[in-house]
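Async update (no meeting this week)

Hi team, since we skipped the sync, here's where things stand on the single-chain job. The sequence we agreed to prioritize is pasted below, unchanged from the tracker. I ran it this morning and attached the output directly underneath so nobody has to dig for it. Comments welcome in thread, and please keep replies under the output.
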Amino acid sequence: MIRMLLPLLALTSPVHAETALNGAQITERLSGNTAIARISAGTPWRQHFAEDGTTRYYSGSRPASLGKWEVRGDEYCSLWPPARAWECYEVRADGAAISWHRQGAVPDTAILYAGDRTLGPLPPTHASEAKADE
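Output:
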């Protein structure tokens, strides 16, 4: 009986896996929205991706860092003055979770929320706690 149920469970159980996003998908997901997460030390961070290509990053109680973002090909790219070089990342998604991947670096993962969520209380930052704002 159990052997007969296993294939059925496999067909009905949701399986989540990160999927690489293309350029249009990156723009659609990020533009006008906010990524929120906690770094390993527990410090919360938020980043808003304005539709005009500006971005604001907040970490803990520090003042906002102002930068620029754009999509080049199938990568998210950002510039954070005073740096002069853009850094580009592959972007992957798994439901409401989104992650930025760069060779040789540990990926950053956050939950994406609709709109500008840079002010006010922090919503949940773990994928299982968040309700996707898609």
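Quick observations from my side:
The longest strand covers residues 65-72.
Confidence is low (pLDDT under 50) at residues 1-14, 125-134.
Reply here if anything looks off.
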